[in-house]
Q: What sequence folds into this?
C-alpha cells in the first residue's frame, strides 16, 4: 500500500465520516441536557428523504439542506414531547422514532426509488491550504459541508464551555432537580437542545443524499449510520471535539471496500467488507468499557432519567 | 397549571384502555396522513380490514404473519420489562434461521417427523442465543450498552446470511440456482406441520405455548422473581444478595433463543429454505412494538401479535390492490405511530394529572 493510496483513503475517511460528525454532534447535544437519543437513524432517514424530495423538486442545495434540517427537528420535537413532557421510557421512545422515521422515509421514498439526486454538493478547494502536500489533499479538497462541520463542532464545544446557556444545559443533564431549584426551566432546556440536535441530525441525513450516496435506495440509504452515530456519542464521552476523531476512524472503516481495492486486495467478499464498520463499532465499545469500568464513560449523570418535580 | 401524582393502584381498565386508545389515535392520525397524501383513508382502512381480518384467507395470512412477531415480541417483552434492551431480535432471528436451515439440511433424510422438527427448532434457538452471547457478556461483565451492540449485530447477521446465499458457494445455497441464487430447499421431513389446507403452521401454536411458558416463568419461578427485583430496584436486589448479572445473562440468552426460534419457525414453517430477503424484514423491530403494546405481559403478546400481524399483512396486500398504489410502508408508519401514542399515554397508567392553582408569590425574605 503506497502513500498515494493512504492519502486517498484518509481523504475518503474524512468525507464519509462527515455525516457521522454531524449526526453524533446532534445526538450529544440533546444527551448533554439529559435526554437519551437513540432515534438518530430515524431522524437521519427523515432528513434524507425530505432533502431528496426537495432537491428533485427545486434543484436547490440550500433548500434541500433546510428541508432535511427541519424534518430532523420535527421528529426530534416528537421525541422531546415523549421523553420530557410524557416522561416515557427514552430508549423505547428512540426506537419509536427510528421505526416511524424509517416508515415515513420509505413511504415517501417509494416514488424516487433508484433515482439519482438532481443536484449534488461539489468539492471546493480551499485556496493555498489545498496545495499543502498530503494534508491539503486529505483536509482541504473536500466540500463545504465538511468545513462547516468543523465550525459547528468548535461552536458547540465553545457553547458548552463558555456560555451561560451551555452551563445551564449541562446542569440540567447532570442534576435536573438542582437546576430546577436554581430557576432553570428544565423542560424548556431539554426541548431546545433535543430539537437543535435533531436539526443537526436531519442535516446529516440531507448531506448524505446530497453528497455521499449515489441514489435513493429506500432504507438502505443510511444502512445503520445512525446507529454508528449513537455509538460514537458514547465513544466521544459526550465531548464534541472527540466526535471528529471517532467519526473519521469509522469513516475509514466505511470505506475499507474502496481502500482495499485500490491497494490491490480484491478477494474479500463484499459482504464481509460491509460488516467491518459494525464489527469495529462493537469492538471499540467493548474495549472502551473494558478500560473505563467505573465512571459510566463520562455520561451526563441524569441521562435517560425522566424528571418529576413532585418526586424531587 | 398541571401536576402529576403517582397512582398507588392502577385498575385493570386502564391496562386495556391505554393500549387500545393509542391504536385508535394512531389510526386516526394515519387517516389524516393518508388523506393529506391524496389517498382515501376510508377505502384503504376498509381494504386493510378485509385483507387481514374479514376473509378466511385473510385471517390465515394474518396468523402466518403474526407467528414470527409473536416470538420476537416475547423476546422483547422478557428483556424490556426488566430494563434490559435487546433490540437485536432481528439479527438473532436471522442467525436462528441460518442454524435451523443448516440443521435441516444436515439431518437430510435420516430423520423425519417430530424428532427432526425438534432438532431444527433447537438449532434455531441455540443460534439465536449464541448471537446474544457477546452482547450479554459484555453487558454484565463490562457494562457495555447492549442496546448498541445487539442492534449493530443485526446488520452483521443479515450480511452473513447474504454472504451464505449470494456471496459464496455453501451447501445452504441451492447449486441449481445460478442466475438467481436462493437457499437450498430443506427436506420435507423437517417442515413444521401445516393445519389442513391452510398455510398456518405449527409455529403459531408453539408461539402461543411459549407465551404461556414465559408468563409462568416470569410469575412463578425464582428467575422471574429475581428479574422483577433486579429490574425494579437494583439496590434492593443487591441488598437481598440476588446475583443480578446472572439474572440478566439468563434473561438475555432466553431472549436470544426466542428470537432464534422465530427464525427457525420461519424457515421450517414458511419459507422452507434460507431466504435472507424474506427473513430480515423487520420482525425483530415489530416485536418490540408488540411487546410495548402488550405492556410487556407475555399473555397479552398473543392478541397484540395477531393485531400487528394483520396490519403488516394488510400493508403487503394494499400494495397489490390495483388502483390504490399505497406503499406497503404505510403499515410501518402506522406501527411507529402506535408506539408513539402508546409512549405518550403510558404515563396515565402510573400517574394522575391534577390541576393545581399557582400559589400567590410570597414576599421576598427580609423585606418588610
A:
Amino acid at each position: 500500500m503506497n502513500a498515494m493510496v493512504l492519502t486517498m483513503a484518509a481523504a475518503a475517511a474524512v468525507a464519509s465520516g462527515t455525516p457521522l460528525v454531524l449526526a453524533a454532534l446532534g445526538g450529544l447535544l440533546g444527551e448533554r441536557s439529559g435526554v437519551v437519543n437513540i432515534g438518530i437513524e430515524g431522524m437521519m432517514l427523515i432528513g434524507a428523504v425530505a432533502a431528496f424530495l426537495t432537491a428533485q423538486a427545486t434543484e436547490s442545495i440550500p433548500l434541500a439542506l433546510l428541508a432535511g434540517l427541519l424534518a430532523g427537528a420535527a421528529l426530534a420535537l416528537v421525541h422531546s414531547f415523549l421523553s420530557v413532557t410524557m416522561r416515557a421510557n427514552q430508549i423505547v421512545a428512540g426506537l419509536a422514532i427510528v421505526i416511524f422515521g424509517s416508515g415515513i422515509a420509505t413511504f415517501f421514498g417509494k416514488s424516487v426509488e433508484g433515482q439519482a439526486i438532481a443536484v449534488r454538493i461539489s468539492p471546493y478547494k480551499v485556496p493555498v491550504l489545498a496545495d499543502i502536500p498530503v494534508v491539503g489533499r486529505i483536509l482541504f479538497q473536500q466540500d463545504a459541508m465538511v468545513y462547516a462541520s468543523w465550525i459547528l463542532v468548535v461552536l458547540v464545544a465553545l457553547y458548552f464551555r463558555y456560555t451561560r446557556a451551555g452551563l445551564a444545559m449541562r446542569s440540567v443533564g447532570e442534576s435536573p432537580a438542582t437546576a430546577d431549584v436554581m430557576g432553570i426551566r428544565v423542560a424548556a432546556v431539554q426541548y431546545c437542545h433535543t430539537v437543535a440536535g435533531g436539526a443537526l441530525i436531519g442535516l446529516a441525513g440531507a448531506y448524505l443524499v446530497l453528497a455521499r450516496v449515489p441514489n435513493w435506495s429506500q432504507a438502505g440509504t443510511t444502512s445503520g449510520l445512525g446507529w454508528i452515530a449513537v455509538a460514537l456519542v458514547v465513544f466521544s464521552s459526550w465531548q464534541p471535539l472527540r466526535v471528529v476523531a471517532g467519526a473519521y476512524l469509522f469513516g475509514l472503516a466505511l470505506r475499507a471496500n474502496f481502500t482495499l481495492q485500490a491497494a490491490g486486495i480484491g478477494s474479500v467478499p463484499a459482504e464481509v467488507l460491509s460488516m467491518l464498520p459494525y464489527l469495529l463499532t462493537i469492538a471499540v465499545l467493548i474495549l472502551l468499557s473494558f478500560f473505563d469500568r467505573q465512571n459510566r464513560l463520562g455520561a451526563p449523570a441524569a441521562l435517560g432519567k425522566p424528571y418529576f418535580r413532585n418526586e424531587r | 397549571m398541571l401536576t402529576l401524582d403517582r397512582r398507588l393502584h392502577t385498575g385493570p381498565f386502564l391496562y386495556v384502555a391505554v393500549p387500545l386508545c393509542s391504536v385508535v389515535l394512531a389510526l386516526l392520525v394515519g387517516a389524516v396522513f393518508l388523506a393529506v397524501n391524496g389517498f382515501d383513508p376510508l377505502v384503504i382502512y376498509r381494504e386493510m380490514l378485509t385483507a387481514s381480518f374479514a376473509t378466511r384467507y385473510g385471517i390465515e395470512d394474518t396468523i402466518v404473519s403474526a407467528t414470527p412477531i409473536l416470538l420476537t415480541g416475547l423476546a422483547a417483552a422478557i428483556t424490556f420489562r426488566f430494563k434490559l434492551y435487546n433490540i437485536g431480535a432481528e439479527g438473532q432471528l436471522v442467525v436462528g434461521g441460518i442454524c435451523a436451515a443448516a440443521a435441516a439440511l444436515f439431518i437430510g433424510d435420516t430423520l423425519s417427523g417430530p424428532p427432526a422438527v425438534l432438532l431444527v427448532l433447537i438449532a434455531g434457538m441455540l443460534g439465536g442465543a449464541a448471537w446474544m452471547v457477546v452482547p450479554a457478556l459484555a453487558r454484565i461483565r463490562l457494562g457495555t450498552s447492549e442496546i448498541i451492540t445487539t442492534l449493530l449485530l443485526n446488520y452483521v447477521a443479515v450480511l452473513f446470511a447474504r454472504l451464505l446465499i449470494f456471496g459464496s458457494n455453501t451447501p445452504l445455497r441451492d447449486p441449481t440456482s445460478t442466475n438467481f441464487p436462493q437457499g437450498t430447499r430443506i427436506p420435507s421431513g423437517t417442515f413444521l406441520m401445516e393445519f389442513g389446507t391452510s398455510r398456518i403452521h405449527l409455529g403459531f401454536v408453539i408461539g402461543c405455548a411459549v407465551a404461556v411458558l414465559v408468563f409462568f416463568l416470569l410469575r412463578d419461578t425464582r428467575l422471574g422473581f429475581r428479574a422483577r427485583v433486579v429490574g425494579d430496584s437494583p439496590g434492593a436486589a443487591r441488598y437481598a444478595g440476588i446475583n443480578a448479572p446472572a439474572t440478566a445473562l439468563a434473561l438475555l440468552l432466553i431472549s436470544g433463543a426466542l428470537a432464534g426460534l422465530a427464525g427457525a419457525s420461519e424457515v421450517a414453517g414458511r419459507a422452507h429454505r434460507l431466504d435472507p430477503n424474506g427473513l430480515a424484514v423487520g420482525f425483530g423491530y415489530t416485536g418490540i412494538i408488540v411487546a410495548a403494546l402488550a405492556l410487556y405481559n407475555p399473555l397479552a403478546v398473543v392478541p397484540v401479535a395477531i393485531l400487528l400481524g394483520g396490519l403488516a399483512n394488510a400493508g403487503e396486500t394494499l400494495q397489490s390492490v390495483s388502483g390504490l398504489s399505497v406503499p406497503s410502508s404505510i403499515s410501518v408508519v402506522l406501527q411507529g405511530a402506535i408506539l408513539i401514542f402508546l409512549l405518550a399515554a403510558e404515563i396515565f397508567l402510573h400517574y394522575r394529572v391534577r390541576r393545581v392553582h399557582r400559589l400567590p408569590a410570597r414576599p421576598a425574605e427580609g423585606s418588610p
Q: What stands out?
A: The two ends of chain A are 60 Å apart (CA to CA). Chain A has one domain: 18-239. The CA atoms of residues 169 and 189 of chain A lie 6 Å apart.
